[in-house]
Amino acid sequence: MVITRTPFRISFFGGGTDFRAYFSEYGGSVLSTTIDKYCYLSMRQLPPFFAYKNQLTYSRIERFDDPAEVQHPLVRAALQHIPTDRIQIAYDADLPACSGIGSSSAFAVGLVQGLRAFHGEYPDCTALAKEAIYLEHTLCGESGGEQDQVAAAFGGLNRIDFTADGFAVHRLELTEECKKSLQENLLLLFTGFTHFSGKVAAEQQNNIPSTLAQLHEMQRMTDTAQQILLDGDPDDFGRLLHETWQLKRTLSQQITTSKIDDIYAQARKNGALGGKVLGAGGGGFMLLYVPKAQQEKLKTALQMYQFVPFAFEETGTQLLYESGSDLKDWVVSRVMRKIDFGLWQKSITEGGLTAPWLHYSRQGAKGQ
């Protein structure tokens, strides 16, 4: 049995410049972080006692003999790309799909990692991200950018640069004070409705030739936002979020709606310095930068909407469990390897393992 856990992400700046049609010519840059909200995939060998050979469980249950029969396009493509037979796959998640937090790409990364581990293979973060991009964009023909797969694979608060030759991930080393302030001043609001990002992304991609000026400016804002954080002024980061949202909403007619505009106007009126709809747009989650002193006022004004508490996370996708050895022994042996590499801080309590030990990523020890 294999269990993977893959984080969702929040994209701050540069979304749209991670479309291959843009960055292959102009380069692209995004600023994003993964959060402590995840999708989970468990995979096990299906015993040969059933009338079907394979089973997939998500919002529905699919039982099939041939992967070509699978209705879920990503799983169908993955099982044809990484041939696997007699497997049972189950999916669960902390947040709803189609809500702007990179759920489909997190699913793709976790699926690739799980299937590879099922075959005794352990790709590093770069390989996982590239294979998930290939799975979604080439095999499934999905439109969209390439930041989500990279963020899900690597985890953390990063600047990700894209060129025609590939991508590079740069971890932002902020002061603890700045990082704490940034996290405390961000609110995640669920608009109450989801969207199909593929349609929005397809229109946005088609509009690239006519929106180059906006995209160039959004890429420059990534530089500005990075410097703001390195200088330790999160409030200016929040104000810049407002500016990038004004640009983002012009990239496609489907990015915003009258309801989204009303929510954002109410948020600005009640203390938000800035914010944006996450992902392709059209619904899902809205990120708001609200100084802590103003948050209760804003939440009261928007009490009809759900606010989701979250924290930044730095681990990226993880292989939480692999059968064949005791879970505790499996984790300990590989965590000790990570300690030897100087990448893990000792965290043992009397009588057993503390939760941080379960945050270990097997692929991390393979050279991420």
- The topology string of helices and strands comes to EHEEEHEHHHEEHEHHHHEEHEEEHEE
The biggest beta sheet reads: 9 strands, mixed
Low-pLDDT ranges: 325-330, 332-368
Helicity level, as a percent range? 25-40%
> How many H/I helices?
12
Our measurement of the CA-to-CA distance between the termini, rounded to an integer number of angstroms, reads 23 Å
Could you write a compact summary of the structure shown?
The protein is an alpha+beta fold and 368 residues long. The chain is built from twelve helices and 15 strands.
Please provide a written account of the structure.
With 368 residues, this protein is an alpha+beta fold. The protein has twelve helices and 15 strands. It has helices at 20-26, 73-81, 103-118, 125-139, 147-154, 176-184, 197-206, 212-231, 234-248, 258-269, 295-301, 327-340; strands spanning 2-13, 28-45, 54-57, 61-64, 87-93, 157-163, 166-171, 186-190, 274-277, 285-289, 306-307, 312-313, 318-322, 348-349, 352-353. The strands form three sheets. Strands 1, 2, 3, 4, 5, 6, 7, 12 and 13 form a nine-stranded mixed sheet that branches. It starts with a strand and ends in a 15-residue tail after the last strand.
